[in-house]
């Protein structure tokens, strides 16, 4: 399983109403230094209906302003429909909505050979 496939398998496991951070996904994939690679992998998501990349936010709970989600505030709209709570300043309430990172490790092959790309 390559790095992108590992990332996709982890993101598929984020439950509705929860979010994960890029760094959290990178750590779960085996290398906490790959947060930017997580972002790139999600940008080229091959199965948007199966891989809920909209559930990944930055470490401060900010959503993407990028076009990948259909324009500014579209990710927020998708998260709100998913049951995610936002703070008054527009960030995801990570205290309430951050995923615990409990993954089905049978599906995900962790490897120490992951390197920065």
Task: Walk me through the topology.
Blueprint: H1 3-11, E1 20-21, H2 22-29, H3 35-43, E2 56-57, H4 74-81, H5 94-97
Parallel strand pairs: 1-2
Helix pairs in contact: 1-2, 2-3
Rg (C-alpha, Å): 13 Å
Can you tell me the overall shape? globular
How can the largest sheet be summarized?
2 strands, parallel
Residue-averaged pLDDT: 88
Structural class: mainly alpha
Oligomer: single chain
End-to-end Cα distance: 15 Å
CATH class: Mainly Alpha
Q: CATH topology, what is it called?
A: Arc Repressor Mutant, subunit A
Number of domains: 1
Keywords: DNA damage, Methyltransferase, Transferase
InterPro entries: ATL_DNA_repair, MethylDNA_cys_MeTrfase_DNA-bd, MethylDNA_cys_MeTrfase_DNAb, WH-like_DNA-bd_sf
Domain Methylated-DNA-[protein]-cysteine S-methyltransferase DNA binding: 4-84
Organism: Monoglobus pectinilyticus
Describe the protein in words.
Keywords: DNA damage, Methyltransferase, Transferase. GO terms for molecular function: methyltransferase activity. It comes from Monoglobus pectinilyticus. This protein has one domain: Orthogonal Bundle (Arc Repressor Mutant, subunit A), CATH 1.10.10.10. Helices cover 32% and strands 3% of the residues. It has five helices and two strands; from the N terminus they run H-E-H-H-E-H-H. Helix 1 (3-11) packs across helix 2 (22-29). The longest helix is centred in the N-terminal third of the chain and has 9 residues, at 3-11. The chain is globular. The protein starts with a helix and ends in a 20-residue tail after the last helix. The relative contact order is 0.24.
């Amino acid at each position: 399983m390559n790095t992108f496939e590992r990332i996709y398998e982890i993101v598929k496991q984020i439950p509705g109403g929860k979010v994960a951070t890029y760094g959290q996904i990178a750590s779960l994939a085996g290398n906490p230094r790959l947060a930017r690679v997580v972002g790139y992998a999600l940008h080229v998501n091959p199965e948007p209906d199966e891989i809920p990349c909209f559930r990944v936010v930055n470490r401060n709970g900010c959503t993407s302003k990028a076009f990948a989600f259909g324009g500014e505030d579209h990710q927020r709209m998708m998260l709100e429909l998913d049951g995610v709570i936002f703070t008054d300043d527009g960030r995801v309430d990570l205290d309430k909505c951050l995923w615990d990172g409990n993954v089905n490790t049978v599906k995900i092959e962790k490897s120490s050979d992951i390197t920065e790309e």
